[in-house]
Specification:
By secondary structure, the chain is α+β, with helices and mostly antiparallel strands. The chain contains two helices and four strands, in the order E-H-E-E-H-E. A hairpin with a 5-residue loop joins strand 2 and strand 3.
């Protein structure tokens, strides 16, 4: 199991959280998604997966929801 934390900008509300969660859950290998909303800042998207994920695939899922992935956070 792998846990990766991504930064996402543009999220402001529970609707944003739901949209990003739905899209990221569809990335192959994702088991769980938890989001720590930071309105007006960089929200934390914590993804549990079977193996390390392809960052462009996660970025595409976030973009499909209408937001921007800032990268992997330490």
């Amino acid at each position: 199991m792998t846990i990766t934390t991504y930064g996402v900008t543009g999220m402001t509300c529970a609707h944003c959280v739901g949209a990003v969660s739905r899209e990221v859950t569809h990335v192959e290998g994702v088991r769980d998604v938890q989001i720590h909303l930071v309105p007006g800042g960089v929200s934390l998207v914590v993804v549990e997966s079977l193996a390390p994920l392809d960052e462009p695939a996660v970025a595409a899922a976030v973009a499909e929801a209408g937001y921007e992935l800032t990268g992997v956070l330490a």
